[in-house]
C-alpha cells in the first residue's frame, strides 16, 4: 500500500523556521522524483520545490528561492523541506508528491505563519 505521510507543520511567527518531513512507503522511493506543493485558501495548488531521484537535482519556485531547501534521504525513504525566513504568504497546506510513471500524494500538513 502506497503511503506518503507529511509532518512538521504548525504555527510559526514571521521570520521563523520549520522543517517538513514526508515518509514514504509502498513503492521504490529512490526511483521517484519528489516534490512539495502548497495550497493556500482560495488558491490553486502550486509547486514549491522538487528533488530528482538519483542525481538529486533541485528546483524551486521563485517565491521560495534562497529561503527553502529540499533534500532527501533514500535510506530513510524521507524527503524534507527546510523553510527559513517564513512569511505570512507562506501560509498553506503543504503536500508531498512522488512522481515517476505514477503519481502519489500525501494528506498534507498545515503551515501557518502569523504573529
In words, what does this structure look like?
With 115 residues, the chain is mainly β. Helix content is 0%, strand content 52%. The chain has strands at residues 3-7, 10-12, 18-25, 33-39, 46-51, 58-60, 68-73, 78-83, 92-99, 103-105, 109-113. The strands form 2 sheets. Strands 2, 4, 5, 6, 9, 10 and 11 form a 7-stranded mixed beta sheet that branches. It has a 4-stranded antiparallel beta sheet with strand order 1-3-8-7, with no helix packed on it. The N and C termini lie far apart (40 Å). The mean pLDDT is 96.
Which helices and strands, and how do they pair?
Blueprint: E1 3-7, E2 10-12, E3 18-25, E4 33-39, E5 46-51, E6 58-60, E7 68-73, E8 78-83, E9 92-99, E10 103-105, E11 109-113
Number of H/I helices? 0
- In sequence order, what are the helices and strands, one letter per element? EEEEEEEEEEE
Computed over alpha carbons, the radius of gyration is 13 Å
Shape: globular
Number of strands: 11
SSE-based structural type: mainly beta
What does the average pLDDT come to? 96
Distance between the termini: 40 Å
Strand portion, in percent?
over 45%
Largest sheet: 7 strands, mixed
pLDDT below 50 for ≥5 consecutive residues: which ranges?
A: none
Amino acid at each position: 500500500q502506497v503511503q506518503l505521510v507529511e509532518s512538521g507543520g504548525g504555527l510559526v511567527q514571521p521570520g521563523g523556521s520549520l522543517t517538513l518531513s514526508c515518509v514514504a512507503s509502498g513503492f521504490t522511493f529512490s526511483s521517484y522524483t519528489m516534490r512539495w506543493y502548497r495550497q493556500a485558501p482560495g488558491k490553486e495548488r502550486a509547486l514549491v520545490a522538487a528533488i530528482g531521484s538519483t542525481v538529486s537535482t533541485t528546483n524551486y519556485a521563485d517565491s521560495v528561492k534562497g529561503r527553502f531547501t529540499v533534500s532527501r534521504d533514500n535510506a530513510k525513504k524521507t524527503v524534507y523541506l527546510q523553510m527559513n525566513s517564513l512569511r505570512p504568504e507562506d501560509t498553506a497546506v503543504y503536500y508531498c508528491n512522488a512522481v515517476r510513471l505514477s503519481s502519489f500524494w500525501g494528506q498534507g500538513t498545515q503551515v501557518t505563519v502569523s504573529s
